[in-house]
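2024-03-11 09:14:02 DEBUG pipeline.ingest accepted 1 chain
2024-03-11 09:14:02 DEBUG pipeline.ingest length=75
2024-03-11 09:14:03 DEBUG pipeline.predict start
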Amino acid sequence: MNANPILLQKKYVRIVELFAEKMGISVETALGIFYHSQLYQLISEGISDMHCMSDGYLVEELEIEYNKKQPWNME
């Protein structure tokens, strides 16, 4: 299912702002992280109706994905 493009853009804004606040980083940095994430790919392509998930849940998923990509996390 595809979401309305305007509503989807508003959701992106909320996710990026919440992520920036939670991580203590600038909105610009958070935006770059978000747009290069697998989470963004899933939401934008309408996979698994990720756009229907709460903003808080999606921020947590973005944080998990971001932390897994960091060099100090060598799992």
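2024-03-11 09:14:41 DEBUG pipeline.report The chain has a mean pLDDT of 91.
2024-03-11 09:14:41 DEBUG pipeline.predict end
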